């Protein structure tokens, strides 16, 4: 799905701002049929949970309702009019006045509807959006809703970040011609000094297609006619990690010799390949340094914020990071566009986190619950997971910064049932995009020899916490155990290995002359131990610390005001580990 853009043939109205807001318990049975009777207003984009001082709103389980009046620009007569929601966590419904126009399940990918027949240029309409935060065993991510003895609904889930909900990204009204560009797929290659751009343009309506390529200065460097084809760029400038160069592909729809629609798409020419135990970008070995991150800030929750976007990337540049993983869901499109422009490499991940019902029992010694079964992860869960993969790749396939798809984080891959669940999903991801490697992120309870699915994937991404959850405080034992396991993976598969999570909870300002857990000194010593091991493993191609910054989680006995594994605090102040990482990453040669 193409992101709406303002062009010579399209116009765009951002509907961000304050909307009327109400919980379903106060909104009535059909809140879209009239003006919401509520004193509350909520900003878009933002999660709603932390905005108010009412715990009933923060802890609400079920639907909430957003509403505002929207005027269609009077100059849009004769155009198609569409409404797009960038994300509604975890399900959304959109109403134009009394009419339902679209509904969608999946909290981190966009959806839209053509509303031309329901609105009039120059006039207003009532726009109502319902958002449902409930998770079940058949959603991605999974969860469960229970009702206690007092009749209160409670949402439980297995992912270790707070279940923020609402309209966390922008809402748009846009116009487009009836005959228009609906989708573009770009695949790039290199032939000597030339860049090769394969393209496919999908259109609405009967029309011809023309494609032009412009360089960064706006000069035309290639053209082609037809909805599918190939364009060569002589003396191409490659998109490189840390040295982004973007061309612009302009797709034009032509009727009777006249351009009736135009859509510009930023593209980067680069190749990605796994060869033996190496990860190659443009034919050169690439070593990942960076983080697992979260879309998480105080008050806004998962609400996208351009100021935090810029500041976070500046901190990554300062620390020497060249990459991040979109743990554990697709991030806002603005984040990937920024990575495209600034040469930051991205591992793009679906929202399939928590597909492991045994993880809590495994960590805390409680009962082990099977992950796969009729009332747990089942065929309908797999169908939702497949749809999440389709929507992720459809949205992000043209970003040069995206070099690999991660289809799940820490699933229960050590049981036999994981194989029939994941094998068709891995096949689907390859069919949708044969040009990028695929991976999943392995949990430490499924080590080499126990894991059942790693042979299906191109890169071994491991989350390991030797020295924290196991060998706590004993870094000597942790170092030996970590190295032994990594050498086992290397011997068994001969594939590139990335440590996608390793970290230790650290309270900023907690110090000791001894390297004790929870102190800043221990976090530094813990990271140093991991790095010594990484540097001894030939197949190692990357290290992404967990986490970039402290983030909010559900209330629990192992979390005090959230997860504290960040090397920056939640408000982006550096801990000692940030300076230690900067010293390593700005000097690292692999």
From TrEMBL:
Its EC number is 3.2.1.31. SUPFAM superfamilies: (Trans)glycosidases, beta-Galactosidase/glucuronidase domain, Galactose-binding domain-like. Residues 14-177 form the Glycosyl hydrolases family 2 sugar binding domain. Residues 272-588 form the Glycoside hydrolase family 2 catalytic domain. Keywords: Glycosidase, Hydrolase. Residues 180-270 form the Glycoside hydrolase family 2 immunoglobulin-like beta-sandwich domain. It holds the Pfam family Glyco_hydro_2_N. Gene3D superfamilies: Galactose-binding domain-like, Glycosidases, Immunoglobulins. It is an enzyme of class 3 (hydrolase). It comes from the Bacteria. GO terms for molecular function: beta-glucuronidase activity. InterPro entries: Beta-gal/glucu_dom_sf (IPR036156), Galactose-bd-like_sf (IPR008979), GH (IPR017853), Glyco_hydro_2 (IPR006101), Glyco_hydro_2_AS (IPR023232), Glyco_hydro_2_cat (IPR006103), Glyco_hydro_2_CS (IPR023230), Glyco_hydro_2_N (IPR006104). Belongs to the glycosyl hydrolase 2 family. This is Beta-glucuronidase. It comes from Microbacterium alkaliflavum. The gene is uidA.
């Amino acid at each position: 799905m193409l992101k709406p853009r303002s062009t010579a043939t399209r116009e765009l109205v951002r509907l961000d701002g304050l909307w009327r807001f109400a919980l379903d318990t106060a909104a009535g049975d059909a809140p879209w049929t009239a003006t919401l009777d509520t004193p509350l207003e909520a900003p878009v984009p933002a999660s709603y949970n932390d905005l108010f001082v009412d715990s009933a709103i923060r802890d609400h389980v079920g639907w909430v309702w957003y509403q505002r009046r929207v005027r269609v620009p009077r100059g849009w007569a004769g155009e198609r009019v569409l409404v797009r929601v960038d994300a509604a966590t975890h399900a959304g419904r959109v109403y134009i006045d009394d009419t339902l126009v679209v509904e969608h399940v999946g909290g981190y990918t966009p959806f839209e509807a053509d509303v031309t027949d329901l609105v009039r240029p120059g006039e207003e309409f009532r726009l109502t959006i319902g958002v449902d935060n409930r998770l079940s065993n058949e959603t991605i991510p999974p969860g469960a809703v229970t009702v206690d003895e007092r009749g209160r609904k409670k949402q439980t889930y297995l992912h270790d970040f707070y279940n923020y909900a609402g309209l966390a990204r922008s809402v748009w009204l846009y116009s487009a011609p009836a005959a228009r560009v609906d989708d573009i797929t770009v695949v790039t290659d290199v032939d000597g000094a030339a860049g090769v751009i394969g393209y496919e343009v999908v259109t609405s309506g009967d029309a011809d297609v023309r494609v032009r390529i412009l360089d960064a200065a706006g000069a035309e460097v290639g053209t082609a006619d037809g909805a599918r084809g190939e364009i060569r760029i002589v003396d191409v400038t490659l998109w490189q990690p840390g040295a982004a160069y973007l061309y612009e592909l302009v797709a034009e729809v032509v009727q009777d010799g006249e351009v009736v629609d135009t859509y510009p798409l930023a593209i980067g020419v680069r190749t990605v390949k796994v060869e033996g135990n190496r990860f190659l970008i443009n034919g050169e070995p690439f070593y990942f340094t960076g983080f697992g991150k979260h879309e998480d800030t105080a008050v806004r929750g998962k609400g996208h914020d351009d100021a935090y976007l810029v500041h976070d990337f500046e901190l990554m540049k300062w620390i020497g990071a060249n990459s991040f993983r979109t743990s554990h869901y697709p991030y806002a499109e603005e984040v990937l566009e920024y990575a495209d422009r600034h040469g930051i490499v991205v591992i793009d991940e679906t929202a399939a986190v928590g597909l492991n019902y045994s993880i809590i029992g495994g960590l805390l010694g409680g009962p082990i619950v099977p992950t796969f079964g009729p009332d747990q992860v089942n065929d309908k869960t797999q169908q939702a997971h497949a749809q999440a993969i389709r929507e992720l790749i459809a949205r992000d396939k043209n970003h040069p910064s995206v070099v690999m798809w991660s289809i799940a984080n820490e699933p229960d891959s050590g049981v036999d049932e994981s194989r029939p669940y994941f094998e068709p999903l891995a096949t689907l991801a390859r069919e949708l995009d044969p040009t990028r490697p695929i991976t999943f992120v392995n949990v430490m309870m499924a080590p080499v020899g126990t894991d059942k699915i790693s042979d299906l994937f191109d890169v071994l991404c491991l989350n390991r916490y030797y020295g924290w959850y196991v060998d706590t405080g004993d870094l000597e034992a942790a170092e030996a155990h970590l190295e032994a396991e990594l050498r086992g993976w290397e011997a068994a598969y001969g594939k590139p290995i990335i440590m996608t999570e390793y970290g230790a909870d650290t309270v900023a300002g907690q110090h000791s002359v001894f390297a004790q857990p929870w102190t800043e000194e221990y976090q530094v010593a813990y990271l140093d131990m991991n790095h010594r091991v990484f540097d001894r493993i030939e197949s190692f191609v990357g290290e992404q610390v967990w986490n970039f910054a402290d983030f909010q989680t559900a209330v629990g006995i192992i979390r005090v005001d959230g997860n504290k594994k960040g090397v920056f605090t939640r408000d982006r102040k550096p801990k000692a580990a940030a300076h230690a990482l900067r010293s390593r990453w700005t000097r690292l040669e692999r």
